[in-house]
Amino acid sequence: MADASTVTIRTRKFMTNRLLQRKQMVVDVIHPGLANVSKIEMREKLAKVFKSETDLVFPFGFRTQFGGGRSTGFVLVYDSMDAAKKFEPKYRLARQGLVEIKRIARKQRKERKNRNKKLHGTEKAKGKKAKKSND
After folding, report:
1. With a cut of 50, which residues of the chain have pLDDT below it?
2. Closest C-alpha among 20, 42, 44, 40 to residue 29
3. What count of other Cβ atoms lies within 10 Å of the Cβ of residue 31?
4. Which of 74, 75, 100, 123 could, after both became Cys, cross-link 119 (CB 3.0–4.6 A)?
């Protein structure tokens, strides 16, 4: 079986995006004998190539070609952590553990939605209780 040392990473369509303070590129990963390469390994190798920290490398959208042995995806390498947090979507930051997304339980969201149906106008924003009519 092949190991991680046989993995080859090639970049295409490289572009330095000064406006978003990053380098962006399409990456071809050749990995014969392996199902795929983990994003963590890829981040480490690309960080070494681009002389950056692993936290500033964001690989995503990888698809393995039919038959295996080759994957293609997209990588963004930010200049600083501030730029990454400013321009990168929250879900990608959460994937790398840089941001914690707090979610309210599904049942609580539904109950709040249904309570708000009984309110009118600005009461919804304030979250006041629904008035019961004594007709």
Report:
1. none
2. 42
3. 20
4. 123
